[in-house]
C-alpha cells in the first residue's frame, strides 16, 4: 500500500508557451486505480512512472493562454497531463470539451475513460441479452456504476458487490440495481450471491479479483462471459493470491473469460461517447462524483481509492470552473 512518503510536491515557475502550445490550468484531476500499476516496474501495458518525474493522469482544465489555433483561451480541455496546477501542451494530448453537452468534469468519468471502459467491456465483450443476470464487483465506483446502468438499459438483472451499506443502498435506491451485496460484512458471500442470482450468473464484470471473484465463479452459467476489467484487490500485494483454479468451470460451462484494456477499443471511442452522452442527456444514466478540494489533497484522494472511500468517481477539484 503506497503512502504519502512515496510522493513529493515541488514548486516551479509557470512555463512560458511557444508557438503551437497552450497553457492549461487544472480544474479537475482524476485519480485512478490503474495508476498504482504504473508505480511499479513490473511489465504491463502502461510504462512505469519514473521516480522523480511528475505523475501523469487524466485532467480537465481551462486554456489560459494559447498559441495554437485549435484551442481558444477560456475553453475547456481534457487529456493526460502532469499532476500539476498548470501544464503546457502542444495539443496532441488534449481534446476539446463542449460544456453545453454535459458538465466538463464528466470527461473524466462517464463521458471519458471509465465510461468507455464500462461500455466496451460490457457491450463488446459481455454482449448482454435481455433477462440475463449480470454481476459486477467494485460496483459502486466510476466503472462499476456505469456498467450496471447500461446492463439495466439492456434489460438484465443486475447485482452489485461493494464495500459498505451506504454504497449498496446507493446502487439499489439511486441506480436501479436489483440487488447489492456488502462483501465486507456479509458472513457468506457465496450464499448471498446465490440468493441474489436465482438463475445463476451470465455475465461477471470483474473490477476486483481475489476471493470476491472466486465466489462469483462458482455460479457461472452455460456460455457465460467473464470480463476481467480490474483486479484492485491484488494491486498492493507483492505476489498475487492463489485462488481456486477456474479452468474446469470455464470448460464445463463453455464460458469465455477475457481481459481487456480500454484502449483496445480506441477505434470505437466515438460510438461509445455518442451513446454515453445520449444516455446521460436523456437521464437514462446518472453518475455521482466524490470530490475532494485542493491540489494538496490529490495524493490522499488517490490513496483513498484503496481504502474504498469513494462512491462514484473520485476527483480532485483544483480550481473553480
Ligand atoms: P473505483 O471508482 O471503483 O475505485 C476503487 C474502488 O475499489 C474502491 O472504492 C473500493 O470500493 C474498491 N476496492 C479497493 N480496494 C479493494 C480491495 N482490496 N478489494 C475489493 N475492492 C477494493 O475505481 P474505477 O472504477 O476507476 O476502477 C475500477 C477497476 O477497473 C479497477 O480495478 C481499475 O484498475 C479497473 N480499470 C480498468 C480499465 C481497463 O482498461 N481495463 C480502465 C479503468 C479502470 P469498495 O468499498 O467496494 O471496496
Set down the secondary structure blueprint.
Elements: E1 22-30, H1 34-38, E2 56-66, E3 76-82, E4 86-89, E5 94-96, H2 113-126, E6 133-137, H3 142-153, E7 157-162, H4 165-174, E8 179-182, H5 189-196, E9 201-206, H6 210-217, E10 220-228, H7 247-253, E11 256-259, H8 269-281, E12 289-293, H9 298-305, E13 313-317
Parallel strand pairs: 6-7, 6-9, 7-8, 9-10, 10-11, 12-13
Antiparallel strand pairs: 1-2, 1-4, 1-13, 2-3, 3-5
Helix pairs in contact: 2-3, 2-8
The structure holds NADPH dihydro-nicotinamide-adenine-dinucleotide phosphate.
InterPro entries: ADH-like_C, ADH_N_2, ER, GroES-like_sf, MDR_fam, NAD(P)-bd_dom_sf
Protein name: Enoyl reductase (ER) domain-containing protein
Keywords: Oxidoreductase
For the record, the CATH architecture of the largest domain stands as: 3-Layer(aba) Sandwich
The CATH topology annotation of the largest domain reads as: Rossmann fold
The 3D shape can be described as: globular
Largest sheet: 7 strands, mixed
**Number of extended strands:** 13
Number of domains: 2
Organism: Mesobacillus persicus
Protein name: Enoyl reductase (ER) domain-containing protein
GO molecular function, one term: oxidoreductase activity, acting on the CH-CH group of donors, NAD or NADP as acceptor
Keywords: Oxidoreductase
Keywords:
Rossmann fold, seven-stranded mixed beta sheet, binds NADPH dihydro-nicotinamide-adenine-dinucleotide phosphate, alpha/beta, 9 helices, 321 residues, oxidoreductase, 2 domains
Amino acid at each position: 500500500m503506497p503512502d504519502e512518503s512515496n510522493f513529493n510536491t515541488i514548486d516551479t515557475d509557470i512555463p512560458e508557451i511557444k508557438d503551437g502550445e497552450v497553457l492549461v490550468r487544472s480544474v479537475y484531476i482524476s485519480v485512478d486505480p490503474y495508476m498504482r500499476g504504473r508505480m511499479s516496474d513490473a511489465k504491463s501495458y502502461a510504462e512505469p512512472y519514473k521516480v522523480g518525474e511528475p505523475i501523469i493522469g487524466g485532467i480537465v482544465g481551462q486554456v489560459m493562454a494559447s498559441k495554437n489555433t485549435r484551442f481558444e483561451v477560456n475553453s475547456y480541455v481534457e487529456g493526460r497531463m502532469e499532476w500539476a496546477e498548470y501544464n503546457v501542451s502542444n495539443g496532441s494530448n488534449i481534446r476539446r470539451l463542449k460544456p453545453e453537452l454535459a458538465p466538463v468534469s464528466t470527461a473524466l468519468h462517464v463521458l471519458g475513460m471509465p465510461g468507455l471502459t464500462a461500455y466496451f467491456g460490457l457491450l463488446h465483450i459481455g454482449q448482454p441479452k435481455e433477462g440475463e443476470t449480470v454481476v459486477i464487483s467494485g460496483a459502486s465506483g466510476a466503472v462499476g456504476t456505469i456498467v450496471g446502468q447500461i446492463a439495466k438499459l439492456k434489460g438484465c438483472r443486475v447485482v452489485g458487490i461493494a464495500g459498505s451499506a451506504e454504497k449498496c443502498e446507493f446502487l439499489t435506491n439511486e441506480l436501479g440495481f436489483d440487488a447489492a451485496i456488502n462483501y465486507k460484512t456479509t458472513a457468506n458471500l457465496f450464499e448471498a450471491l446465490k440468493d441474489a442470482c436465482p438463475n445463476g450468473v451470465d455475465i461477471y464484470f470483474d473490477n476486483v479479483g481475489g476471493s470476491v471473484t472466486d465466489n462469483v465463479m462458482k455460479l457461472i452459467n452455460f456460455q457465460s462471459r467473464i470480463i476481467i476489467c480490474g483486479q484492485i484487490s491484488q494491486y498492493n500485494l507483492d505476489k498475487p493470491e492463489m485462488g481456486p483454479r477456474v479452468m474446469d468451470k470455464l470448460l464445463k460451462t463453455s464460458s469465455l473469460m477475457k481481459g481487456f484494456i480500454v484502449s483496445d477499443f480506441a477505434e470505437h471511442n466515438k460510438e461509445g461517447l455518442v451513446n454515453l452522452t445520449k444516455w446521460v442527456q436523456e437521464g437514462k444514466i446518472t453518475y455521482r462524483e466524490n470530490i475532494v478540494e485542493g491540489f494538496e489533497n490529490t495524493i490522499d484522494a488517490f490513496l483513498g481509492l484503496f481504502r474504498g472511500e469513494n462512491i462514484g468517481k473520485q476527483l480532485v477539484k483544483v480550481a473553480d470552473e
